[in-house]
């Protein structure tokens, strides 16, 4: 057995042991490797499991946008199925049967990008809150196991940064949750896109005032969706969502996955200087 094979076997065993101790998650996945003779998927699907920072929005909500609306602009030869929904945490995503809907749709060759924390950290809403080192970790372990059991590839995405500055520098609002994701990526040999670090560094380089343009900061009357104006440091404008999608693409291109080869080198749709006015690529 090679070192790589031993590491993957160890990873599967570790996941099985972790899942055996989960009272809060009903996970029917087995950790057997996907059959090597599985029929190839003509067009792989990339599923997005996340919250409002990734979700699609109807035209009447413009310019509010999620990065999930634009990541498909730079993924060639795959289909993107954005299942992200505002206000969801790992807990509510499971309890509302949203994760199970993805799990039963996954096929060999598919990928699922998993980004949660913004709502998991909300202690004021019990239906959402999960502590990082216990329930959050356990939910992510079950997601990893479920995806792998279908022959799909799970990719963990650390939570995209909020527009929160202190003493002139962007602050990591979900550091404990990001740390859990990084730890699980190492423990179970899961591809990781460290969007928290990349996005925080990105807005830090732009500066507090300039990076306002990436978020929903508008005066009264600028957009019908926000007649009274808005100062939202969590959700993205069209340009912000495009920039975040570009950072995700950067991360995906660096993973040791099949999806990495589908990331386009042409990022013009995500780095453009002016807004399109919709979630169209260009």
From TrEMBL:
Signal peptide: 1-33
Alphabetized InterPro entries for the sequence: RhgT-like, SGNH_hydro, SGNH_hydro_sf
GO molecular function, one term: hydrolase activity, acting on ester bonds
Domain SGNH hydrolase-type esterase: residue ranges: 51-242
Gene3D superfamilies: SGNH hydrolase
Source taxon at top rank: Bacteria
SUPFAM superfamilies assigned to the protein according to its UniProt record, in alphabetical order: SGNH hydrolase (SSF52266)
Keywords: Hydrolase, Signal
CDD domains the UniProt entry points to: Rhamnogalacturan_acetylesterase_like (cd01821)
Similarity field: Belongs to the 'GDSL' lipolytic enzyme family.
Entry protein name: Rhamnogalacturonan acetylesterase YesY
Species for this entry: Croceicoccus mobilis
Gene: yesY
